[in-house]
């Protein structure tokens, strides 16, 4: 069952009924100002940090599920009838038609009722700290229409955590100011924070009034579905003092038959400079001379259209860095548009804010952000470079890492802490991806502090060295890396134990005797050590290259000795030395993570173990909806395993289909030459390919979800946690770099596809180091045997870098 369809020409997903199984969201913003917006106008906005700079309020887990957002009400002043063009928050008001178009960093929602059509375009202009709502109202009646528009936002008191908890204080601090139709939300301004929000409208001549106090606007014991002010058709012009500040404008609209009227609303964020002479610290005066020109510029219809055109051109340029034409439409759609778009959104926000992450509980992930780079670096490498420096600056001097850092302060998040012992190794992979894409080896000499401590700067290359040393300094009884608090699987907490049955568990840190070991980190170490060896060699440090290769080889041998279970790679050893992910276990016998990451590191490729492990995945873990994380599922809570067994069977880490890890198996299958199986796995979780089962899948059919319920779950095939997930980057890498095989390398661009047997080939255009490569893959052989580069034959599959600006025609021949 579908709830809409793709408009491939416009690069939009068109939702034609508002009652989607879950809110289907989109993101506004591309740099510092962001917001989420659902297909019914729900969501919120923030500047840089969804916790500390939240502009508007949103209540997760609400009923209805998606309530609170960017709402516009249309009122027929002759009859008193009113409704919202976005369906919510007035779903009882039946619409004659409805359409939501989610595009690239913008959303349009339109509907009609009683001969009046209203369309709202939401977008955040490039390089601005604001969003635009362009409302167009059309009279399709045969007689004139007298209408009112009411805008509405509910301001958050900035710190979203405090806003949701500290009512005894917050009910007394709300402050607004209204000047020339602009509502300024300046709560907290007196605390010398020097930031404020504003909400303005272009309808100066037809502006009838405003409201800034929620209870006055809604009325006593009323909700957003029947605001008293809208019902009565008259704004109250009340200034909020404490309680719940909002912003609402009342605009009169007179329309002749067939006439369209445009009204623009602008919601934005501003700061006064700390040395502003017009606004001494601690004052309550907003320097409007600075911000008012910005507001006026974006209330102009012509500027709004230019800004929207610029936004679309921005995405034209970004997506042009890689386009493909394959025999499969779902692949084309995801690679060319939606997967690439999701990679950018995920890169911008890590895991901090979505419909499933409140923006309060976590910041930017150290591990997460390094992996997100993999799917993004080809589009804007300079921003990837900046992000790597931010990440590396949070690293600790011993090579360890804060698991997350706050985007506003760029400091390690002590609420989350450290001890996730895989974290440091991902920095090596993130830097390696940047170097492969750009060839910018001088980047390694960039001075970066540890833990953002001034005076502790060291070259980025040394940060990579300490990342590797962190693992080598923490090896357990079998010579495998200590897992710490957890590895990639945050819920596999193997240093949990109870001395007395029935007593509360304790968590043992490495310094006090935590000896649980991770085969997964061992495989990741092999991969990272090999990457660092190549980097050392490129720097002319041959001795270090030898050391790192030897470390990788030794760890691979340890995996073979202590991490192989006969038909697959084991997962770990717990605090008590009991093996996890083994045929010896009654549950949790085989896990997906080591089967993928060990093969990616090259373990088992030469002795047949990789093929055996992947065959075990196909036999024991693969389902029609994707590959589950482990089998059998844990049927009861096990204290020695930690959080993983707290989930019901089939959900999340307890045998759910964790889509993030599925691409590791896809890549591994290409490494052993199995293109059919790799592509089959890709199709199983491809959102576009799952569009026909939207009533089962439930989340958006245009972006990847973090997880899909596994075979043990009653809702097998149902997705959750869409948008912000490492799935986006890893699936982009799997399909573009390994199945289609267009892979950046240190020495050039490698063309090494491993295709499904039914494909005759494909075409692609790839930007790489300033040049453009027009690529055709043809032939029926298993692998590329030679290339024709501008007509000249090159044996193998590596295209040397061309000068910036060059257009290179490449034919890759499979014989």
From TrEMBL:
Top-level taxonomy: Bacteria, Bacillati, Actinomycetota, Actinomycetes, Micromonosporales
Any Gene Ontology biological process: carbohydrate metabolic process
SMART domains in alphabetical order: CBM_X
Organism: Actinoplanes derwentensis
PANTHER family noted in UniProt: CELLOBIONIC ACID PHOSPHORYLASE, CELLOBIONIC ACID PHOSPHORYLASE-RELATED
Entry keyword set: Glycosyltransferase, Transferase
UniProt cross-references to Gene3D superfamilies, sorted A to Z: 1.50.10.10, Glycoside hydrolase, family 65, N-terminal domain, Maltose phosphorylase, domain 3, mpn423 like domain
Top-level taxon: Bacteria
Protein name: Cellobiose phosphorylase
Domain Glycoside hydrolase family 65 C-terminal: start-end pairs: 748-793
Glycosyl hydrolase 94 supersandwich domain location: 11-284
Glycosyl hydrolase 94 catalytic domain sequence ranges: 314-741
Keyword S-adenosyl-L-methionine found: no
Single GO term (MF): carbohydrate binding
Alphabetical list of InterPro entries matching this protein: 6-hairpin_glycosidase_sf, 6hp_glycosidase-like_sf, Gal_mutarotase_sf_dom, GH65_N, GH94_catalytic, GH94_Enzymes, Glyco_hydro_65_C, Glyco_hydrolase_94_b-supersand
């Amino acid at each position: 069952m579908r709830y809409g369809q793709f408009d491939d020409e416009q690069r939009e997903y068109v939702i034609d009924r508002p009652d989607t199984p879950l809110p289907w969201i989109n993101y506004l913003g591309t740099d510092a100002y962001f917001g989420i917006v659902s297909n019914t106008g729900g969501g919120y906005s923030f500047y840089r940090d969804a916790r500390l700079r939240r502009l508007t309020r949103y209540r997760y887990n609400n009923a209805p599920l998606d309530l609170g957002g960017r709402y516009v009400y249309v009122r027929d002043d002759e009859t008193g009838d009113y409704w919202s063009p976005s369906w919510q928050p007035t779903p009882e008001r039946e619409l004659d038609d409805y359409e939501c178009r989610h595009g690239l960093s913008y959303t349009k929602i339109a509907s009609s009722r009683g001969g009046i059509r209203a369309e709202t375009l939401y977008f955040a202009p490039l390089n601005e700290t604001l969003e635009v709502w362009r409302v167009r109202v059309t009279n399709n009646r045969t007689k004139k229409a007298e209408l009112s528009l009411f805008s509405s936002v509910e301001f958050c008191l900035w710190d979203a955590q405090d806003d949701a908890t500290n009512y005894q204080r917050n009910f007394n601090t709300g402050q607004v100011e209204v000047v020339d139709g602009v509502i300024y939300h300046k709560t907290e301004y007196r605390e010398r924070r020097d930031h404020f929000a504003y909400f303005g409208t272009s309808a100066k001549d037809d502006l009838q009034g405003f409201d800034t106090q929620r209870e006055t606007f809604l009325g006593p014991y009323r909700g957003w579905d029947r605001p008293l002010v809208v019902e009565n058709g008259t704004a109250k012009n009340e200034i909020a003092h404490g309680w719940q500040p909002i912003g609402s404008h009342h605009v009169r609209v007179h329309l002749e038959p067939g006439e369209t009227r445009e009204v623009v609303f602008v919601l934005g964020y501003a700061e006064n400079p700390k040395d502003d002479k017009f606004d001494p610290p601690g004052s309550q005066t907003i320097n409007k001379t600075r911000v008012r020109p910005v507001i006026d510029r974006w209330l102009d219809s012509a500027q709004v259209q230019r800004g929207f055109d610029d936004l679309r051109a921005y995405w034209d340029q970004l997506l042009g860095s890689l386009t493909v034409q394959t025999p499969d439409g779902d692949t084309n759609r995801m690679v060319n548009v939606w997967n690439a778009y999701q990679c950018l959104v995920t890169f911008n926000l890590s895991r901090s804010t979505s419909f499933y992450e409140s923006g309060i509980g976590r910041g930017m992930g150290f591990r997460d952000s390094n992996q997100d780079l993999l799917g993004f670096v080809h589009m804007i490498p300079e921003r990837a470079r900046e992000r790597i420096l931010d990440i590396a600056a949070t690293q600790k001097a011993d090579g360890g890492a804060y698991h997350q850092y706050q985007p506003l302060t760029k400091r390690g998040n002590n609420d989350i802490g450290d001890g996730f012992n895989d974290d440091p190794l991902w920095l090596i992979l993130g830097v390696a991806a940047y170097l492969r894409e750009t060839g910018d080896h001088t980047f390694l000499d960039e001075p970066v502090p540890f833990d953002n401590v001034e005076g502790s700067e060291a070259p980025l290359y040394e940060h990579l060295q300490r990342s590797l040393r962190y693992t080598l300094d923490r090896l357990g009884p079998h010579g495998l890396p200590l897992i710490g608090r957890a590895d990639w699987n945050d819920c596999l907490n193997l240093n949990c134990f109870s001395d007395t049955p029935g007593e509360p568990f304790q968590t043992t840190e490495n310094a006090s005797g935590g000896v649980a070991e991770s085969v997964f980190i061992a495989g990741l170490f092999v991969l990272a050590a090999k990457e660092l060896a190549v980097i050392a060699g490129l720097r002319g440090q041959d001795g270090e290259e030898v050391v790192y290769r030897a470390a990788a080889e030794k760890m691979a041998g340890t995996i073979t000795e202590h991490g192989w279970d006969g038909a697959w790679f084991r997962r770990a050893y717990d605090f008590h030395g009991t093996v996890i992910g083994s045929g010896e276990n009654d549950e949790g016998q085989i896990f997906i993570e080591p089967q993928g990451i060990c093969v990616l590191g090259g373990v088992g490729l030469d002795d047949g173990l990789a093929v055996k492990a992947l065959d075990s995945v196909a036999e024991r873990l693969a389902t029609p909806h994707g590959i589950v994380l482990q089998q059998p599922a844990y049927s009861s809570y096990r204290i020695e395993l930690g959080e993983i067994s707290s989930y019901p069977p089939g959900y999340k880490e307890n045998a759910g289909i964790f889509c993030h890890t599925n691409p590791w198996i896809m890549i591994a299958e290409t490494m052993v030459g199995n293109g059919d199986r790799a592509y089959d796995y890709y199709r199983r979780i491809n959102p576009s390919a799952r569009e026909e089962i939207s009533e089962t899948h439930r989340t958006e059919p245009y972006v990847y979800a973090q997880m899909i319920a596994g075979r043990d779950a009653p809702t097998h095939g149902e997705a959750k946690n869409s948008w912000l997930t490492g799935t986006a980057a890893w699936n982009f890498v799997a399909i573009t770099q390994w199945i289609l095989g267009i892979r950046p390398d240190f020495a050039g661009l490698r063309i090494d596809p491993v295709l499904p047997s039914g494909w005759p080939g494909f075409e692609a255009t790839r930007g790489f180091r300033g040049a453009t490569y027009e690529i055709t893959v043809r032939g029926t052989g298993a692998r590329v045997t030679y290339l024709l580069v501008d007509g000249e034959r090159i044996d193998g599959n590596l295209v040397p870098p061309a000068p910036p600006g060059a257009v290179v025609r490449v034919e890759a021949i499979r014989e």
